[in-house]
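As a warm-up, study this chain.
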Amino acid sequence: MLHLSAAVDQTSAYDAASYVALARLAERGGLDFVTLDDTFARPGPDALGVLSRVAPATRRIGLVPTVTTTHTEPFHVQAAVATLDWVSRGRAGWRIDVSATEGEARLFGRRPAAPAEALWQEAGEVADVAARLWDSWEDDAEIRDVPSGRFIDRDKLHHVDFQGTSFSVRGPSIVPRPPQGHPVRVVDATDGPARRTAARYADVALVRAASPAQAAAVRHELRAAAAEFGRRPDELRVLAGLLVDLGDGERAAEPGHGGGGPRQTVQGPVYRGGPVDLAELIATWHGEGVVDGFHLTPAEPLRDLERLVNGTVALLQHRGLFRTFYPGSTLREHLGLARPANQYAVPGGAS
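Now compare it with the structure written out below.
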């Protein structure tokens, strides 16, 4: 199954309507999910807040904000992501990221910047404790028994008692278990320090690769590492990240693009050409089994997303390479991922 996603980032856009329009356009093309970047390093709207507004205006597409795990409270992070899953009825994910600069650290004043390895270790611990907190409510913990006045079955709430390298969390969560059990975890695994965290915790790993061979090597490395962590490697979706500039008309891909692969730039791999050659690139890479799909960032959000949906995606659908409708209602269903069992409710789980 080919998976496609797109970024809906916009420079200096603060009105919700523009993000709603882009998400609806991506949904019309049947894309698995959209992402919205966020960082403490520059001004911009809160991605979680924006996509919580987009949620009731869309029906099927997954919503994945970037969530920074450095300088933030893990308990509050998991509650916010769980809330997005509830308001979207099971379509939430979160793109886990870290803050590495002194400037970002000074915004909070709690601690200095740390090395990337330490930040990504902490990010993995946040992913771990988030899953435990989501499981701290069993699915049937809410009983809402009016005659007895009991809202929850306290025997089905669990303390997580988690101790990390820089934080501890007792739990349970203040938000009931999300519809997906665990909202989908996305990690950009291009850089080395993030790769271990992606292999251990991510459902979707994003990689910036400029050739099929490079993409295949990273995918193999990630899946091998996932197996070492006791995971099933085929449950990790690896998507190639690509900045796409589709221009204003149909044209052949520029040299270095097309089926031979994108061009490496300081921004990462960039494709400049028409929707037809982009469809060929996607079909070739996926057909060779080097990636599970693509995460596409439009150079000009509205123009390139329209050309992507109406041109590239339509062609892939016509060739039977991409779905024409959503097979389910949750992001996990779009990605072909099972809903995780509750670790506190199954035999042998944590207590």
